[in-house]
Each structure stands twice: as structure tokens, then as C-alpha cells.
Amino acid sequence: MTTFDDRERAFETKYARDEEMQFRVTVRRNRLLGQWAAEKMKLTAEETDAYAKAVVQADFEEAGDEDVIRKLVSDLTAAGVEVDESVVRRAIEDHTVEARRQLMQAE
Predict the structure, then answer these.
(1) What range does the domain containing 11 cover?
(2) What is the b/e burial string over 21-33, where b = at least 16 CB atoms within 10 angstroms of the residue's CB?
(3) Predicted confidence (pLDDT) per residue in 44-75, tens digit
(4) What is the rounded distance in angstroms from the CA atom of residue 73 to the CA atom of residue 70?
(5) Hey, CA dihedral for 36, 73, 25, 52, is it positive or negative?
């Protein structure tokens, strides 16, 4: 039975590590998205930092990316930036890749 128990523990450990890594990628991605949007809105460095944190916080409203998409589209549109949902979705894809790359380099 110990071999089975060892395999089960190893699987649980891997699952927990994968979930933690996915969470870290999502948080990093949202921070990068906030910086991307802040640049488009021509915010100052201090405003950019605060806005990036606000985008990270927005992701905790509901599961999935829809809350972040709504925030970015709404804020960009309010700032007079021509943007639609497809542009934001593409930015999410691009920044997810970049966030994963940054985290892998850091390890």
C-alpha cells in the first residue's frame, strides 16, 4: 500500500504546485495588463502602479477573466481610448504568455 500512498501524495503535491503556479501567472498577467492599459491611458508612474493593483483586485470579483475584461474595456473607453473586447482578449493572451515566461525565468 505504501507505493500507492506515495503516488497519491505525489499527485496531490503536483496538483497543489500547479494550482499555485497558475494563480501566480494570473496575478502577474493582470499586473502586466494593468500596466499595458495605464500606458494607453497615459497615466503617471504612481497612477500606473495603483491601476495595476486595481486590475489584480478586479479579478477576485468572479471566476474567470470576464471581470478583468469588463474593467479594462470600461476604463479604457472612459479614458477615450478606442478599444473593444477582442483587443483586450488578445492582450490577455499575450500577457499570459509573458507572465508565464517571467515566472519561469525567476525560478
Answers:
(1) 2-106
(2) eeeebbebbbbbb
(3) 999 999 999 999 999 888 888 999 999 999 99
(4) 5
(5) positive
